[in-house]
Amino acid sequence: MSILNLHNSLNTYLILAAVLFGMGIYGLVTRRTLVGMLIASELILAASSINFMAFNRFTAPDPTVGQIFTLFIMAIAAAEAAIGLSITIAVYRNYKSVDTEDLVDLNG
Amino acid sequence: MNPTDASGVLGFFMAEGLAGYADAASGIVFLAMLAAIIIGGIIACNSERLVRAVAGLALCFIGVAGIYYFLNSPFVSMMQILIYVGAVCITIAFAIMLASPEENKKQGPAGPLSGPLGLITAGLITFGMIGLAVNTSFAVLPKENMGSIQRIGAELLTSYSMVFELVSIVLLIAIIGSLVIARHGRSK
């Protein structure tokens, strides 16, 4: 298989999605701020969408379903980003900080 | 990628007719999209300043849109650019400006072990998923149709009309809820 023919193989997309998922997990674990963690979670969502679209293109009998599912994932991700950012702004207003180490009021 | 892969690169420099050039060009564009995703993702999860992380996220999403185009879905590719690059990244940039998490912050990772442990966790998950994906043989079913935009529109308004309406309700609730949450305690 030629390196210029990578886009015709299912494994390319699965490996790409796994790498993107790993980068998202890494960002989620190591980031100190809420906004940084939100950015990392967007990477994870993109990885899951790539998986859906890859299986949709290569194995599914009806390629319409995966595209529609990816559109729904986009809508849910947009809603999640909006609510997460408004929570971030509310947290900043109350604590004057979005550092995860400062939000310890529920820490027993 | 075994050593014989070089034939594909060499084939680009030989005269093989127009089809060969088109294949090679699309392969190069695909590699560029892969590079955009990897570089953008690394910037998004590693940069010190959050504004640069958002820029890396936008680059990564543009690459993902290109990947969708290679997966026979130009409509989803355009929606990816519109929604993610156009809306989500801009919203995150606004939140960074409003909450200004940059100032008076301790920089760097959360602890001496946070970086290596995070790297180990992410590496284990990544290689586990890659191993699982490569070693599984997926059943390939024959295509019933090509998944055109007309089919997407028809299916959205017939088979998936219930989900379509539910997603619109979810979006409405998200808009109202985010306004209420962000407005709470504004006079302080």
> How many β-strand stretches of chain B?
0
CATH first level of the largest domain in chain B: which class?
Mainly Alpha
Largest sheet of chain B: none
How many domains comprise the coordinates of chain A? 1
| Radius of gyration of chain A, taken over Cα atoms and rounded to an integer in Å | 18 Å
Instruction: Return the structural class of chain B.
Output: mainly alpha
Name given to the CATH homologous superfamily of the largest domain in chain B: NADH-ubiquinone/plastoquinone oxidoreductase chain 6, subunit NuoJ
Task: Assess the beta-strand content of chain A as a share of residues.
Answer: under 5%
Hey, which two chains have the biggest interface? A-B, 83 and 101 residues
Using brief descriptors, characterize the structure shown.
heterodimer; A: 108 residues; mainly alpha; Helix Hairpins; 3 helices; elongated; B: 188 residues; Four Helix Bundle (Hemerythrin (Met), subunit A); 2 domains; 0% strand; globular; disordered N terminus
What does the model show?
Chain A is mainly α. Helix content of chain A is 73%, strand content 0%. Chain A has helices at 10-30, 34-58, 63-95. The longest helix of chain A has 33 residues, at 63-95. Chain A is elongated, with a radius of gyration of 18 Å. Chain A starts with 9 loop residues before the first helix and ends in a 13-residue tail after the last helix. The termini of chain B are far apart. Chain B has two domains: 10-100, Four Helix Bundle (Hemerythrin (Met), subunit A) (Up-down Bundle), CATH 1.20.120.1200; 146-188. Chains A and B meet through helix 1, helix 2 and helix 3 of A and helix 1, helix 2, helix 3, helix 4 and helix 5 of B.
In short:
The complex is a heterodimer of chains A (108) and B (188). Chain A has 108 residues and is an all-alpha fold.
